[in-house]
Amino acid sequence: MEISIRKAIAHDAEEISAIWRVICSERRYTAVSKPFTTEQEREYISSLSDREGIFVVEIEDQIIGFQSLDKWAKYSD
């Protein structure tokens, strides 16, 4: 089993959005109460500067987790 970590691209939005739905439905491990849609996630990824990013963890080409690193999270306004 090969595990890889890489910076997310807009194409990853659907898989990241699916993970958000699970996390938000559990209502335990996030302050975010409403999951991002695929389009919102795609726009967010595209809006990040070179010094920001979402890093995804993949096993066998499937994203199983992610971590966002940004200067200011607009979703927490």
Structure characterization notes:
31% of the residues lie in helices and 26% in strands. It has 77 residues and is α+β, with helices and mostly antiparallel strands. It has one domain: Aminopeptidase, CATH 3.40.630. It has a three-stranded antiparallel sheet with strand order 1-2-3. Strand 2 and strand 3 form a beta hairpin. It starts with a strand and ends in an 8-residue tail after the last strand. The mean pLDDT is 88.
How is this fold's topology laid out?
Layout: E1 3-7, H1 13-26, H2 38-47, E2 53-59, E3 62-69
Antiparallel strand pairs: 1-2, 2-3
Sequence of strands across the biggest β-sheet: 1-2-3
**Whole-Å distance between the termini?**
40 Å
Question: Which class of secondary structure composition applies to the elements?
Answer: alpha+beta
CATH architectural arrangement: 3-Layer(aba) Sandwich
Q: On the 0-100 scale, what is the average pLDDT?
A: 88
The CATH C-level class name: Alpha Beta
Instruction: Give me the Rg, rounded.
Output: 12 Å
* Main sheet specs: 3 strands, antiparallel
CATH topology: Aminopeptidase
Write a short abstract of this structure:
With 77 residues, this protein is an alpha+beta fold.
